[in-house]
Design goal:
mainly alpha, 2 domains
Length: about 230
């Protein structure tokens, strides 16, 4: 959530709290009451949109995926070393060539490329069971690596959906703030044009932080309605 959006939301909540506490001043006016009801509904929708955006922050998910990938690559690299040891001892140049990739390369190439290489090493490990049992290669370990590979591959589309949800929430926030600004501007006019309680008006415009309005009404120097935020 952007700082300007949070600042506006805080101001909107303060404005609603103020009119609620001073309901007796305006409640008899049906048009003001209707606009206030719309504003309250807007704030509730805005709160839900902000919550949705915060819950769908992809940053933590991306960090988790990167760490999972790094840990997974380390495990596959250890398998690669076992297979390489077997290949060198038994003169299997084909296997040695298939699994001959440094860990640094697995960590530096593209994510898709790394996963393809890892899958190839796991597949070769399965093909050489049980010949490599004495070298520490087990079916259980290979099954575990296969499962981990599948989970990591599934993380990307999930992160993509999270990012899309976050973008959608961002658009909702933008639209709701535009609507709220319009409603608050209507109340600025309504209160100053239809309410005579000076204390109430002073309090309202103090919260709204309107430049050039009501502050100098005693000197009749009204300026344009401009949100400080």
């Amino acid at each position: 959530m952007k700082f300007r959006e949070k600042t506006f939301w805080d101001m909107e909540k303060q404005s609603i709290s103020y009119v609620s506490k001073n309901e007796s001043v305006w409640i008899a006016n049906s048009v003001i009451a209707a606009t206030t009801t719309f504003l309250v509904a807007n704030e509730k929708e805005l709160a839900l949109a902000i919550k949705a955006q915060e819950n769908n922050n992809p940053g933590g998910h991306v960090a988790q995926k990167n760490q999972s990938l790094k840990t997974f690559i380390r495990k596959v690299y250890k398998l690669r070393r076992k297979l390489s040891y077997y290949a060198k001892r038994n003169g299997d140049k084909v296997l040695q060539n298939d699994v001959d990739i440094p860990e640094s390369d697995l960590l530096s190439i593209s994510e898709n490329g790394a996963l393809l290489k890892c899958n190839s090493i796991i597949t070769r490990g399965k093909e050489y069971l049980p010949l490599t049992a004495a070298y520490g290669v087990t079916a259980e370990d290979l099954d575990t690596l296969t499962t981990e590979l599948s989970k990591i591959e599934q993380m990307y589309p999930n992160i993509g959906l999270i990012t899309n949800d976050r973008k959608s929430a961002g658009r909702s926030i933008k639209d709701l703030i535009i609507e709220a600004r319009n409603l608050l501007d209507q109340l600025d006019d309504a209160f100053e044009g239809m309410i005579e309680d000076e204390d109430f008006l002073n309090g309202w415009f103090a919260i709204r932080k309107i430049k050039g309005r009501h502050k100098n009404r005693g000197n009749d120097k009204k300026g344009p309605s401009t949100d400080a935020n």
